[in-house]
Amino acid sequence: MRLKIVQAGEAVLRQEARALSPEEIRSAEIRQLIELMRETMRDAPGVGLAAPQVGLPLQLAVIEDPEELQRAIAPERLAERGRHPVPFHVIVNPVITLEGEAVEFFEGCLSVGGFTALVPRAARVRVECLDQNGAPIAIDADGWYARILQHEIDHLHGTLYVDRMHTRSFMSVDHFARRWNDLPILEAKQRLGIAMSA
Ligand code: ZN
């Protein structure tokens, strides 16, 4: 069974999600929700899914960037993004600290279906949160994993990538795949008329 992923325009995507207590995290309802979110993310497919995306204003997200999803991507694309496999895990009530320079890549969102844009994100992050058993954990991440964490945690605060993107880079996934995916980011920015200092 998979859950319905809501699209931009649903009010829940613009709300501040509420924190969960460790007891709630261990409840049958939340365990069931995590299972369904995992199935829904894999089916999409996506590398992250936040509870507001399935209509629930809760500070919970699931993340997984499996090797299977990366096989179709050229090794040099994976290398420049710092993209490595990330096993399935859950983050609850995350507090994020951004570290390092901003790096820019195209990213998309299952709640902004069919589109992609160039989004600056911190190169590294530290996330303090609870895991799926309600235990406190700290995550230090860089590369694509750091981007996934920033994107998912934004969802828990009512923020979408469109709030952070270079607006001139907003385009359909179809166009991106055909004309832009293989360009170096600097050249893409030049062609799109995005200031180089930004
Ligand atoms: Zn998203």
> Would you identify the CATH H-level superfamily?
Peptide deformylase
Strand content: 25-35%
Number of individual domains: 1
Number of strands: 6
Number of separate helices: 7
Oligomer state equals single chain
Give the biggest beta sheet.
6 strands, antiparallel
Gap from first CA to last CA: 43 Å
Radius of gyration: 17 Å
Percent helix range: 25-40%
Low-confidence stretches: none
> H/E order of the elements?
HHEEHHEEEHEHH
Under CATH at level 1, the class stands as Alpha Beta
What is the fold named in CATH at topology level?
Peptide Deformylase
Spatial shape: globular
Question: What average pLDDT do the residues reach?
Answer: 96
Instruction: Output the structural class.
Output: alpha+beta
Could you characterize what this model shows?
- This protein is of the alpha+beta class.
- It has one domain (11-192): Peptide Deformylase (Alpha-Beta Complex).
- Helix content is 30%, strand content 28%.
- The chain contains 7 helices and 6 strands; from the N terminus they run ααββααβββαβαα.
- Strands 1, 2, 3, 4, 5 and 6 form a 6-stranded antiparallel β-sheet that branches.
- Zinc ion (ZN) binds at residues 109-111, 151, 155.
- Zinc ion binds at residues 109-111, 151, 155.
